[in-house]
UniProtKB/TrEMBL annotation:
Source organism superkingdom: Bacteria
Single GO biological process annotation from the record: response to oxidative stress
Keywords recorded for this protein, A-Z: Oxidoreductase
Species this chain originates from: Tessaracoccus defluvii
Pfam families, per the entry: POR (PF01558), POR_N (PF01855)
Record carries keyword Oxidoreductase: yes
Matching Gene3D superfamilies: 3.40.50.920, 3.40.50.970, Pyruvate-ferredoxin oxidoreductase, PFOR, domain III (3.40.920.10)
Keyword Oxidoreductase assigned: yes
InterPro entries: 2-oxoacid/accept_OxRdtase_asu, Pyruvate:ferred/Flavod_OxRd, Pyrv/ketoisovalerate_OxRed_cat, Pyrv_Fd/Flavodoxin_OxRdtase_N, Pyrv_flavodox_OxRed_cen, THDP-binding, Transketo_C/PFOR_II
CDD domains the UniProt entry points to: TPP_PYR_PFOR_IOR-alpha_like
GO MF terms, alphabetically ordered: magnesium ion binding; oxidoreductase activity, acting on the aldehyde or oxo group of donors
Biological classification of the source: Bacteria, Bacillati, Actinomycetota, Actinomycetes, Propionibacteriales
Protein name: 2-oxoacid:acceptor oxidoreductase subunit alpha
Length: 603
């Protein structure tokens, strides 16, 4: 199902529509067939205008079995179109999901426009000449359905036939059968009278440039590569596979051609240690993971704080706690990212707002890590990681260089007049310490996790020195605020009294909900945070400029609590932890209620 959805998305992107996707699949490698937990779905929103989410509710539901129909029926509005494969609607399969009667016959679907088709039978007949087993022949039903939908929505077909030819090049019979099923599905839509209309969705107006479809994980991988290249450093990825972050490791492991070195470690702790060791040796150390992995890496991240070395930690968040729901999305690692280490161990935290924004956020994480000699956590989530959008290929020459500024000679003089290297002597502007690559003659120095003397880096248990170092490390992170842009507010009318403030992937639902609210004649302002620690310098003034601040999050109000404690401004937390993106329609209705209640209070 994921392959089918991805192919329809690819053709739609090539056609020029704006797109947003939401893949949704079980955590089990082989989920129980025909059961509700085993349903794999793929939602695609495409349009001839700018869109920012995969949408709340689909217009068309394609259900390949009873479980898929039951699992997704509640999302389909009355009057929606259902295309359903009737082949698996047996008493046994219906009983598996708790249906005593067949919904295709008992009136359950009377409020919908239903096209009940034997897709399996049609596909099997289309590939009969290839001599496939019954099981293999029935598997081509997805390609038959894809062909039918390609006709229904006037999608190009050449890309899919070329894809199938390449994917199954070593299995000619499977290749030819899938292509035949795809073409048969298209011909079925074209020659039968099952569908009353065929839809035309024009390309979306976009800035000129070269575009491609990209997922958040792929964009993150590209951003890390560009960040390292701009710093003139080798990218070293120390990682351990974990859902939903593994695709970053998969992509970077292919990129030896641009000097990327990847190390798949035996566990999360070893992965982080290897990445930090690579930074000590002069590479840009990166480690990728999800929430449980960040917990295991926390001691190494603290070591990075003490040694003051660059380390980029990418946390692709998923639903927790513990193993939680590995393939579902959440934003519940914010407090872990900001505070989840022993002692006073401050680090910068950034969050990407969209799949394409993962590219820019990854570069920004590399820049801050190198410039300020610090670990940086970049937050993404499962929704962004697996979702796809059109991405305009950037002008790489326009991306600023990152200057690591390695120490190459002594930077101090002893009382006796002898030149020496002081590894913890700091840049007065950034408070970043001197960074010498091991083996540089005359710049030998001690490294490790025990507290450092302020200049020499020698082991120190002096109380005053410890306080000085703790406050200096904090001041270094606090000082990054001068190097990040102010938060921008979208308040086109200038009359809004309610501010919707978000971070990470809530950008899409917030933006979409605000557009709908404004169409009702109500005013609402929006703002979004990329930098979560430190926060933009003007944020306090922005918050105090509105009567009510609503913070939607896929957690129990973590950012809302931080803002209220830091700025002493009343914050309205809007929390959803369902493993899915925040509903646009729910957010719209609830914010309208906030706006209207505020108006009533002031009458």
């Amino acid at each position: 199902m994921q392959l089918t959805g991805d192919r329809f998305t690819a053709e739609t992107a090539i056609f020029g529509n704006d797109i947003a996707t939401l893949p949704n699949f079980p955590a089990e490698i082989r989920a129980p067939q025909g059961t509700l937990p085993g349903v794999s779905s793929f939602q695609l929103h495409f349009a001839d205008f700018d869109i920012v989410t995969p949408g709340d509710v689909p217009d068309v539901l394609v259900a390949m079995n009873p479980a898929a129909l039951k699992a997704n029926l509640r999302d389909l509005p009355k009057g929606g179109v259902i295309i359903v494969d009737t082949a698996d609607f047996t008493k046994r399969n219906l009983a598996k999901i708790g249906w005593a009667t067949n919904p295709l016959e008992d009136g359950t679907l009377s409020s919908y426009s239903v096209h009940a088709l034997d897709l399996t039978g049609l596909a099997t007949g289309a590939v009969a000449e290839f001599g496939l087993t019954r099981r293999d022949a029935s598997r081509t039903k997805n390609m038959f359905a894809l062909g039918m939908l390609s006709w229904l929505y006037s999608r190009p077909t050449e890309g899919t036939t070329d894809f199938l030819a390449q994917k199954f090049a070593k299995k000619p019979v499977i290749r030819d059968a899938n292509i035949a099923a795809f073409k048969a599905g298209y011909a079925f839509g074209e020659t039968t009278e099952v569908f009353e209309v065929q839809y035309q969705v024009a390309p979306a107006p976009m800035p000129k440039g070269r575009y491609r479809q990209i997922s958040g994980n792929l964009a993150t991988a590209y951003g890390l590569m560009v960040g390292a290249q701009k710093a003139g450093m080798q990218l070293f990825l120390g990682s351990y596979p974990i859902t939903p972050a593994s695709d970053i490791l998969h992509e970077l492991s292919k990129r030896k051609d641009v000097g990327v070195m990847t190390f798949q470690a035996e566990d999360e702790i070893a992965a982080a240690g290897a990445a930090l060791g690579a930074s000590f040796a002069g590479s840009l150390g990166v480690t990728t993971t999800s929430g449980p992995g960040v917990a295991l890496k926390s001691e190494t991240i603290s070591l990075g704080v003490m040694t003051e070395l660059p380390l980029v930690v990418v946390n692709v968040q998923r639903a927790g706690p513990s193993t939680g729901m590995p393939t579902k999305t959440e934003q519940a690692d914010l407090l872990q990212a900001i505070n989840g280490r022993n002692g006073e161990a401050p680090i910068p935290v950034l969050a990407a707002r969209s799949s394409t924004d993962c590219f820019d956020t990854a570069i920004e994480a590399c820049r801050i890590a190198v410039k300020y000699r610090t670990p940086v956590i970049m937050l993404s989530d499962g929704y962004l990681a697996n979702g796809a959008e059109p991405w305009r290929l950037p002008d790489l020459d326009a991306i600023p260089q990152i200057v690591p500024g390695f120490a190459t000679e002594p930077n101090a003089v002893t009382d006796a007049g002898k030149a020496e290297f002081q590894p913890y002597k700091r840049d007065p502007e950034t408070l970043a310490r001197a960074w010498a690559i091991p083996g540089t003659p005359g710049l030998e120095h001690r490294i490790g996790g025990i507290e450092k003397a302020a200049l020499t880096g020698d082991v120190s248990y002096d109380p005053d020195n410890h306080e000085l170092m703790v406050r200096t490390r904090q001041a270094k992170i606090d000082g990054i605020v001068a190097d990040i842009p102010d938060v921008e507010v979208d308040d086109d009318s200038g009359e809004a009294r309610v501010l919707l403030l978000g971070w990470g992937s809530t950008y899409g639902p917030i933006t979409a909900a605000a557009r709908r609210i404004r169409k009702t004649g109500r005013a609402v302002a929006t703002a979004h945070l990329r930098h979560l620690n430190p926060m933009p310098a003007n944020l306090g003034d922005v918050l105090r400029g509105y009567d009510r601040v609503v913070v939607p999050e896929m957690n129990l109000g973590q950012l809302a609590g931080l803002l209220q404690a830091r700025y002493l401004v009343e914050i309205t937390s809007y929390s959803r932890v369902r493993g899915l993106p925040i509903s646009i329609s729910e957010l719209e209705a609830d914010v309208i209620a906030e706006i209207d209640s505020l108006q009533e209070e002031n009458r």
